[in-house]
## 1
Amino acid sequence: MIFSTHYFSRYNAEPVLFSTPPAEHPGMIVVIPCYDDEFVFNTLRSLEKTKQPKSNVEVIVIVNSSTNTPASVIEKNRKIYEELKEKSKTSHYKSFRLFPAIIENIPKKKAGVGYARKVGMDEAVRRFSAIDKPQGIIISLDADTLVSEDYFVSIENHFKQNMKAGAFTFQFQHDFNPKLYSKEEIEACKQYEMYLRYFRLALKFTGFPYAFHTIGSCFAVTASAYTKVGGMPCRQGGEDFYFLHKLTPMTTIGEIKEILVYPSPRLSDRVPFGTGPSVRRIIEDGSYCVYNADLFLLLKRFFDCFDYFSESENVDLNVVPCEIIDFIGKEKLLEITGECKQNAKPGKSLTKRLFSKFDAFFIIKFLNSFTGTSNYPPMEITKAVRRLLEYYEMEENGDVYEAMLRLDLEKT
């Protein structure tokens, strides 16, 4: 039975996009959503310059627009698509086979980068299914992102060396090239990138087991794992976060610590949140405030209670921070912990089940519940990072200083 049969019978998908059969020995398929973005040609040139992996590579570009897309953008999209199509016909790119598609009049409710990414990844699954290759690698990339020369080789090697991993996230650094971007964009994006690293380090500090970056251009997944999790969600933003955290209970997600991608720091309104909108807001506001670092200390104290829940016959909520109890509710918290204790053995099994209940979505809701309150108000990013670093006892831990080493915090 083909591994994707159940997926396509259960989940809605666009019709087949390409009739051309997969290349001989395809191992990786890159998926790039493209909306109003001629920078995609720079991205493709960057892919062309990479070291060649052992397996063949295909690149799918999904040029997309919705029912309410301005006519000027639709026209620009069509020109981009026509140029992509011409390059695909003439074998312009030697390092990979290019497969461009254009989808227009997508209903407003589901249009966006998540839908475009899903369409491309679904097509990648079809192509791997045609040769019955469930371990085929689907790579997520954005149209405004450059890659390192080791991009394909590193991804291929990590999957081969870690057969249990169904996905990998990559390290990144925004492209702070002063010849391409303004000083304002670069300085604002440095603050945003500092936040991304701060958030991951803060999650790691709490003891949360799935502390990894969730960035659309910084992950790859096997075709099999993609289908098991139900595919990419059709969201206008944040689809990467939802997808990767839905994946955590089903497979191991590894980390490639090399910097493989260089996203653009430019401001934009293509998506409701992410780099572009954040850079715009930082420039407009003149500062950047983020989740209060003390909230992560509360989460750490809560997660530290999981060992106690495992060892104790009855759950005493006196050990749980009152802010957590106020957020969840005493009865609800007792109900959840009681259900977990009934259905999992003490130890790792119970801890894993508790984290499946108090997952990344719980964390975000908890953090957001303090937005606009006097308790634990948002902190300016550099102050938040410094506060977090104070919580780490071993300052020589290189991972702790990720934000400082990447962005030279002391000079910011």
Note: DSSP finds 16 helices and ten strands in the chain.
## 2
Amino acid sequence: MTEIVARRPKRAPTHPGALLREDVLPAANISVSAAARALGVSRQTLHSLLREQTVVTPAMAVRLAALFGTSPDLWLGMQGAHDLWHAQRALTNEVRKISANRVSAAAAA
């Protein structure tokens, strides 16, 4: 069986909301209100993303890609990397308890 070794950087990948807040909106010279209008979402929805309190959904990724000339995959990839990094750390102890033997034993039963 081939073993896959996951890359585990010490610093969490940047949340896409932080990238929007710190780099994308200022570079585009667009306010949060104007961006929200252009995206077709409320200011509260966009603020929540910028505060990193919500995630980039597929629908939001499509909207962001259309507004900023990127691809939805970029936004979803950033969100996925961020979420996976946090999940790996949150579940470290549980994952250690899972073994290939348990899977093999369950399949044999």
Note: The first helix runs from residue 16 to 28.
## 3
Amino acid sequence: MIAAAQLSVPEGRTLVLIFLASALGALLSRLHTRIVLPTVVVEIVLGIVFGPQVLGIAKVYPFVTLLANFGLAFLFFFAGLEVIEKRVRPRALKLGTMGWGLSLAIGLVVGLLLQQLGLDATWWLLGVALCTTALGTLVPILSDSGLFATPLGSAILGTGVAGEFWPIIFISVFLTSVYGKAQEVLLLLVFGVVVVGAARLALRARPPRVMRVLQETIHTTGQTAVRVSIFLLAWFVFLAARSGFEFILGAFAAGLVVGLVLDSPEGRVVRLKLEGIGFGFLIPVYFVVTGMNFDLDSLLSARGLALAALFLALLLVVRGSSASLWLRELGLRQSLALAFCGATALPLIVAIVGIGEERGDISDAVGASLIGAGMISVLAYPLLATRIAGVAGSPETAPPLDTVSAGEVAEY
């Protein structure tokens, strides 16, 4: 028999408070009928309140860190799923990628300048952090405002997918210190071949007996498809870590593979079940723990607030610059709305800062200001974008509920 694990009273209290913050985050974010807050922001704030910086009634224990890392893996897993699910038009993806390249060039110059001015952060980490986009936060806004079928909606999707995909690839190379950069790029290509091979195998090799088991257990305790998906997530995470890359690359790759396999009406049910595990359990733990580790004192200092304001402006300048490529198609007003949408960033900033702090590439104080700027961006920029675009969400303009997945109504 397996001996039952014993939690101390403080450990048990911390676990309960984390799940309380998770539940309250979902509730408080939609408590007001007119003001819908991003759930991730509420979770981080509750983590700060329960953590050492404010009430001090919850602490980050090793098992809590383990759960949070699982949550981070699921966050990038769903980023991979979104790339497949959104079916972004080729032209939108092309312009989105070109725009991200422009943002990266500007971001790296800004990062180098800030590092030369004495900011305690590596220049390239600052550069890539300023080039991210919170696609999961933008999707519900597109849905509620009826923008999905418009040119602006297509541009936002292209910008958002590029703002999630390419930063993951970039940091996977630059945050790896096991090999030289040339070897890391080569190894990344090999890893990509493995991912493509796994995807082709998953799409073509579908033995009738296996498919029958997957279909028969989708509504039973067997849940074979869900278990296989989680196995693939674990396997790719292990493969990436074993190769010397950050485990988030493996999680993202797993999302791409599973997304291809689930890209069918039958796969929608499995997707919803995976979202229940990720968004209902593990991902909130990651953001609550992020709040518990948050350096609130540094953010609330005069320097911290000034840095947060600077980073907020730089998000718009650096990431919003990609909207210039859409000027001819969208016009000035819609392009400005696109700039604010592209500058909406938080989840990837949190992940990049967390990894950077572990490796000593960014100080806690600078990281707190960067995350603070990301929190403000998801609160303010999408609202400004919809106002500039001249749309307001209404039941008449929103698509039918059954055409929007659970991932599209999660504020991550």
Note: DSSP finds 17 helices and no strands in the chain.
## 4
Amino acid sequence: MVTRSIETSEGKSASPPRRKPGRPTLSNEQLLDKALDLFLEQGFERTSIDAITASAGMAKRTVYARYGDKTSLFKAALKRAIDEWIVPVERLREAETGDLEESLIAVGRILVANIMSPAGLRLLRLTNSESGRMPEIGAYNLKLGTEPTLSYLADLFRRHLGRGSGGLKDVNEAATAFLNLVVGGPSNAAAWGVDLAPDEVDSQLRYSVGLFLHGIVPQRQAGSEAAQAAAVDAERQRLDALLGETMDRLAELRQRLGE
């Protein structure tokens, strides 16, 4: 390597002054990750651009040039987190089995585990706290994550139960009910700070899936109808036996009269 020298006023050669190293420029994804960490930890209001730039080691003007203001940066960071957090429909489809109930248990486990993960809970709390101020965040989460999941569940019900009589009439409402009952229960409890053990979560999930598929009142009605049918059948057998006994006695009486 050749080092260039500079002639000084005294005729002596000197090396050129070294440049001070500049700040390394973070990628856009890295900046959003740093910003999200602070938003998740402190909330939107208490997180300042100064704190974000200090954490990212980036000049304010660079952040403003990319996003304009804190609100735009927050929305971009949250949308990126939602994109990475949402479970792809393909993963849900891979969990299916030939049995609808077991398929719903497997799908429910994936969705509950995802929403109850540390990242999922932090994201849920942040989205809930800020969706009133920024409704487009909730709408984005609904469109990107909830709607594809609802469509997948509706298709799953349609494939297993059909559209004819005896099948499920409104698969879309059923899909919404499944998410609210099976996934919403544990996630809401966790969001409120209720610490559920893994076996409790799984037990509740299995019960909720069974409740969703079979209900409470229909099971009781079915049991009552079965009991009634059994009683009717037993009464029929008793009457048949009595009739047979009566006919035998009548035949015996006729034989005696003939003698």
Note: The chain has a mean pLDDT of 78.
